[in-house]
Design brief:
580 residues; alpha+beta; Beta-galactosidase, Chain A, domain 5; 8-stranded mixed beta sheet; 23 strands; globular
């Protein structure tokens, strides 16, 4: 079976499985809505409801679909579009009820999703005319509501530009070019390595790549495709052997999650544009994974009618993996050092507390973390990366953080509710938005109090590849002595942990101290051995560190000054021989 009927069958199956979730009682105010399992009610957004409309329209319109021209499906599509339109606010905008009310960007997601359907319905003949008319009317009013009303996140900007450019293509009398130009003037948030600012390989890279592709076509800006190419090349070098992707550096909800690349539709589209067989095979391989076929997948296939025969069959696995292998590569702009060799997949990262990751066959060290007890910058997060012989150096500089210290008196009355506003903080317990502010902004925030500051501490971690493993050295420079510290090794469980003549089940959420010597985590046929341990303290949950409820944690207890060599070795494991 070729990819087109494969995706259309998926669309039809999704639609039929959604039938029990659609409200068809005409007396119900939510008539036509799809009850979302996330909300327990119908919601007009690009999620469950929007996906239903999109898959339903593709399945209804295309002759190779098992639901082509189905009368019952038409009734349900009309009801779903009616619910969507009925939920538009006076501005033309819709809600993402979980977080954004009257939301321009979330409305833009629906316009981006539905615009290709309207374009296809206009050429599909009379049976699809209702889609062109009813969904087109929604797009026109929604697009008008988007203009001039803003966004929240970096990717929202490009979704909005994409949606408006698509609406302008459908309705030439609708002009949003001035607003689009104002957003584009901010320039695309991509670095030299092809990494977007949200660093979200599992979710938002796909959103940005899709948006840039549509913008390139609708705004006649082919240069945007070069940005997509750079990001796709980076993504290929962040893949594990099974096709899942590194998410450790993401600043969004996919951080640390097991995920396949969100850009599979862009891999397909760009492969057909560029005749890139590796990208093409990778896209098809990805579409075999659960949850990877979306309406954007169907659109990417249909956008290249003359090349459908070039697409490998998803029923025939490739003889050779298109995933790059046998390389060591440093991405300086992204702050990523990457090693990929057969069953080995490892990486070191700046800009995240998950400093190092190693996967070998069936075992995974999902994160190596370093922390000092409740100190500014206590959770190690590298500011800079530098390639060294056989590895990388990660450095955290104290001068990039608020200095550790204590507030001094103001010599004036402090109001009942004023103290917390005036209080300085080490910021180590603050994540997300506040933690990402510049040092200057943080200093201005608390400029009203003088402080007595403590000696600064820099931290340096060197990671070097060794035979069947890695040698890691953790070093503190300056600061106080006797400050508790730790190396935290987070393994993906369940598995078995063996150390010091004992063995236990390594269950997610559990922890063990490695007090001395070496310990081994194994799972099925593979193992990772770490050590030596240390026993400076017994802080099971060091203050200021991050929880890891989904990992089995091995803790190496240290105190400053730290100069600790850590060996990590990987290899096969057998119950009748030692792990290597």
């Amino acid at each position: 079976m070729s990819l087109l009927p494969y995706t259309l069958e998926h669309a039809a199956r999704y639609v039929l499985e959604s039938y029990p979730r659609q409200i068809l009682d005409t007396a119900d105010r939510d008539y036509g809505g799809i009850v979302s399992p996330d909300y327990g009610c119908a919601a007009a957004d690009s999620g469950r409801h929007g996906t239903f409309i999109a898959f339903a329209c593709y399945a209804y319109m295309h002759t190779e679909s098992p639901l082509h021209g189905d009368t019952e499906l038409r009734r349900r599509i009309e009801a779903a579009i009616g619910f969507l339109s009925g939920r538009q606010r006076e501005s033309g905008l819709i809600d993402l009820i979980s977080v954004n009310i009257e939301s321009p960007p979330d409305t833009a997601f629906t316009v981006q999703l539905f615009a290709p359907l309207v374009a296809r319905a206009r050429t599909a003949g009379e049976p699809a005319a209702f889609i062109a008319e009813e969904l087109g009317a929604y797009i026109r009013s929604a697009a008008e509501g988007i203009v001039g009303r803003g966004f929240h996140t970096p990717n929202h900007r490009w979704v909005i530009c994409s949606a408006l450019s698509q609406a302008m293509s459908l309705y030439p009398d609708f002009d949003a070019s001035e607003y689009i130009d104002a957003i584009l003037a901010e320039t695309i948030d991509v670095n030299e390595d092809g990494q977007y600012s949200e660093r979200s390989t599992g979710v938002y890279d796909g959103v940005v790549n899709r948006s840039l592709r549509y913008m390139a076509d609708k705004l006649n800006m082919p240069e945007l495709l070069d940005i997509v190419r750079r990001n796709l090349d980076l993504t290929m070098h962040l893949l594990h052997p099974d096709g899942s992707v590194l998410t450790s550096v993401s600043i969004r909800q996919d951080r640390g999650a097991a995920a396949y690349p969100a850009s599979a539709d862009s891999f397909l589209d760009m492969a057909l544009r560029d005749s890139n067989d590796d990208w093409l095979q990778f896209a098809v391989d990805t579409f075999r994974k659960p949850g990877t076929i979306t309406p954007a997948t169907v659109e990417a296939v249909l956008s290249h009618p003359g090349q459908i025969s070039r697409i490998p069959s998803p029923d025939a696995p490739s003889s050779a993996s298109p995933i790059p292998d046998g390389f060591r590569r440093f991405f300086p702009a992204a702050g990523i050092w990457r090693v990929k060799d057969g069953d080995l997949s490892a990486a070191a990262f700046a800009g995240t507390t998950s400093v190092f990751l190693l996967r070998y066959g069936s075992v995974e060290l999902r994160a190596l973390k370093v922390a000092r007890c409740r100190a500014p910058g206590g959770r190690f997060e590298a500011d800079t990366t530098e390639e060294i012989e056989r590895g990388v150096r990660l450095t955290q500089k104290a001068d990039r953080r608020i200095a550790s210290g204590y507030d001094l008196p103001l010599g004036r009355p402090v109001g009942f509710d004023e103290f917390e506003e005036l209080r300085s903080t080490d910021y180590d317990h603050i994540r997300t938005k506040q933690e990402q502010r510049s040092l200057k902004q943080l200093e201005l925030l608390h400029a009203s109090r003088d402080r007595w500051t403590l000696p600064p501490t820099d931290v340096q971690i060197d990671i070097r590849e060794a035979e069947s493993g890695f040698d890691i050295e953790v070093l503190t420079i300056g600061g106080h002595d006797r400050n508790p510290a730790q190396i935290e090794l987070c393994f993906t469980g369940p598995g078995i942990w063996e150390a010091g003549g004992t063995a236990c089940e390594a269950i997610p959420g559990a922890s063990a101290f490695l007090l001395s010597g070496f310990g081994t985590f194994h799972n099925h046929r593979h193992a990772i051995t770490v050590g030596p341990g240390a026993s400076a303290h017994r802080m099971w949950h060091m203050r200021g560190t991050e929880p890891e409820p989904d990992a089995f944690r091995v803790l190496i207890a240290l105190e400053t000054p730290v100069e600790h060599p850590l060996q990590i070795r990987y290899g096969p494991w057998s119950p009748v021989s030692d792990a290597s």
